[in-house]
Amino acid sequence: MLPNYLFVIEFGYEIDMIFSLLTIGVYKNNGYLMVSCNGGLNQMRAAICDMVTIARYLNVTLIVPELDKTSFWADPSEFQDIFDVDHFITSLRDEVRILKELPPRLKRRVETGTVYSMPPISWSDISYYRNQILPLIRKYKVVHLNRTDTRLANNGQPLDIQKLRCRVNFSALRFTSQIEDLGKRVIKLLRQNGPFIVLHLRYEMDMLAFSGCTQGCNNEEVEELTRMRYAYPWWKEKIINSDLKRKDGLCPLTPEETALILRALDIENSYQIYIAAGEIYGGNRRMASLASAYPKLVRKETLLEPSDLGFFQNHSSQMAALDYLVSLESDIFIPTYDGNMAKVVEGHRRFLGYKQTILLDRRLLVDLIDQYNSGSLSWNEFSNAVKESHKYRKGQPTQRSVIPDRPKEEDYFYANPEECLKPSSYGQVSSM
Asked: What topology does CATH give the domain 177-420?
């Protein structure tokens, strides 16, 4: 159980800070936790949930998280540009105290660079934060965690810890009204024309450069992607065999491969296919087969006027937030790569009633595709194999895997937060 105390034992806060404490009731303040999130929107989203939970468990005051502005996307957005910060603070005030900034006397430490800063150990049990991080907070009064992705273990945590992670994710983290309103407009436009599928086609330049996956790329594109990979020193893997990586299922499906799989799954060409992604590498040339198979191919840029999206230009996380909202509401969600957005959306759709999410087995699929393209499989054999292999990969209730000493290989908590789900609700989702 999380510990409870009678009051915050510290003074000198501004009046609005004091008022924010009155609804918490039982609380003791052990110090302050600052966090700097790293990665894209959904990597940061999961990290924020973890950091709120850790702050509550340690009885420390959390400062509104700082978002990553130095990643590949270089998005300058602040927390309040993407999330409703006031809702975030007030909706959690019965659990944890969150402030927009440090009290002035402590803020000066940040300005002079004297705050204790460190990256916590990845996939750590909550006891690590109690035994290693809390003593540092008590000693220095303020601790800054400068990396936050995957810092809390998937499994083996107390039930109230897991449920609080869900509460933050599904209730406290609400997008700004501007993002929410535009998302509703996109969904309404799609619904006017019938059912729609969201295809998270992760075939952007950064993903291909990072992964080294170059299937279908010409020589100039391969060279461009290789140069880009070497240009980012924190992308540690440099020499990559694209063919081997693809056969191991570690590459996002290409647009051409995706078109084949959608057809094999009997996705009718009358359905709208909403592309949730950035600019597809190779442009119209690489999208030709998918557009030919599914003429009702749309994206936010084709549904909205340029003026609608003007505010969001050069703010990749805000654009991703729009795609996130549309993905949640789609009749079917299909990611072509199991990145952070795919996983977090999968988990959120499970929470909303196990809405159908087709989780593609890329290792199996590329083998089937190669057999079909070589003539070893007929179309019917290929299609039947694809459908049969994905019968139980549609977001049904399932137990999250536990692999002792290999946390990276476990099912991700945010893809399947089973402690917060209602298994009986599955079956109400109709399949296409």
From this structure: Rossmann fold (3.40.50)
C-beta of residue 70 within 8 angstroms of C-beta of residue 234: no
**What's this model's pTM, rounded to 2 decimal places?**
0.91
Sign (positive/negative) of CA torsion 204, 210, 211, 216? Answer: positive
Does the fold of domain 177-420 match that of domain 32-172? yes
Helix/strand/coil for 381: helix
Are residues 24 and 60 in contact, defined by beta-carbon separation less than 8 angstroms? no
Burial class (CB in 10 A: 0-12, 13-18, 19+), 258: buried
Strand order, beta sheet including 332-335:
297-298, 272-275, 196-200, 332-335
CATH top class, domain 32-172: alpha beta
Q: Of 223, 274, 281, give the one whose Cα is nearest residue 251.
A: 281
List, for residues 22-72, the tens digit of each pLDDT value: 444 456 799 999 999 999 999 999 999 999 999 999 999 999 999 998 777
Domain ranges (residues) in the chain: 32-172, 177-420
